[in-house]
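Subject: design request, 309 residues
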């Protein structure tokens, strides 16, 4: 049997420098970067998603960035199909794919070749969406927690799409997404992946980095970016506009809150998101953690990664 070709995964909570390390690593090993960020797939959403600029890419080919319009509903299943094509093409050209991002569900589903997304029932979904709109996210998350506490623990009450999807799968199949995950892990994985997780030795350093990133986003024109999306006609209830930073800034643009309170809200939600990302990642015992002791030192990390080959 032909052995599976190796790919490298750089993941971790938000603001840990995943994109920067991925670029440096890909440049050092002749690889190409494949984004695993559920928001960087959207066009016209650059500032709030911390999308790497052309200069930051350093000439390294990037994939799965700017692939759909912001009003489109982009699913995990669609990401797996699109990203797998990119990775297979890179491998065919004898290059090394460097999968980089913090959307754990996207990464796990891609690496495993997960197929649970085929369980669909339009009527059930519409009914659950209406229930979410009527009862609110907290109530629906509580409902999910009653039969799938593991998945509920890593979702936010504002994540309508994934909460509804998790409940829908359970109703249609009788199995939770967590159970699907466990069953999938028993099957041969799609790729031979080595997963590296980035983290700071002190949680306070991560939170400081997150707060700093939010301030930079605001300075670089996040409000202007959100205004542009609204002018383009992107629905406020779309998946893209529910992203952290965007939904809070919509309130500012519409005059429903001031910039200072919105900024604090973005920082708080970003910190909460980082906690959920860590909870997700720590379930995977195969993650090799790369920890910043003080300032990020990607050169040392690259040596560690290359030395593990």
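Subject: RE: design request

Done. Sequence follows.
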């Amino acid at each position: 049997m032909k052995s599976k070709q190796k790919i490298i995964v750089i993941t971790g909570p938000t603001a840990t420098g995943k994109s920067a390390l991925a670029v440096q690593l890909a440049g050092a090993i002749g690889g190409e970067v494949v984004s695993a960020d559920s928001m960087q797939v959207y066009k016209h959403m650059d500032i709030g998603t911390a999308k790497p600029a052309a200069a930051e890419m350093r000439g390294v080919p990037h994939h799965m960035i700017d692939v759909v319009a912001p009003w489109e509903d982009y699913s995990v299943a669609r990401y797996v199909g699109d990203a797998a094509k990119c990775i297979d093409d890179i491998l065919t050209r004898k290059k090394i794919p460097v999968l980089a991002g913090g959307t754990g569900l996207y990464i796990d589903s891609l690496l495993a070749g997960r197929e649970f997304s085929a369980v669909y029932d339009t009527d059930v979904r519409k009914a659950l969406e209406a229930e979410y709109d009527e009862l609110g996210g907290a109530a629906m998350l509580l409902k999910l927690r009653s039969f799938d506490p593991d998945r509920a623990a890593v979702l936010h009450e504002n994540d309508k799409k994934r909460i509804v999807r998790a409940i829908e799968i359970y109703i249609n199949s009788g199995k939770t997404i967590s159970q699907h995950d466990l069953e999938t892990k028993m099957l041969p994985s799609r790729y031979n992946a080595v997963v590296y997780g980035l983290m700071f030795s002190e949680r306070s350093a991560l939170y400081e980095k997150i707060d700093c990133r939010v301030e930079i986003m605001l300075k670089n024109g996040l409000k202007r970016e959100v205004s542009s999306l609204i002018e383009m006609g992107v629905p406020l209830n779309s998946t893209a506009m529910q992203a952290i930073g965007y939904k809070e800034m919509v309130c500012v643009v519409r005059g429903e809150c001031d910039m200072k309170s919105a900024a604090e809200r973005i920082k708080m939600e970003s910190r909460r998101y980082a906690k959920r990302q860590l909870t997700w990642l720590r379930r995977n015992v195969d993650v090799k953690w790369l920890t910043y002791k003080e300032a990020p030192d990607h050169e040392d990390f690259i040596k560690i990664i290359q030395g593990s080959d």
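Residues 213 and 219 are 10 Å apart (CA to CA).
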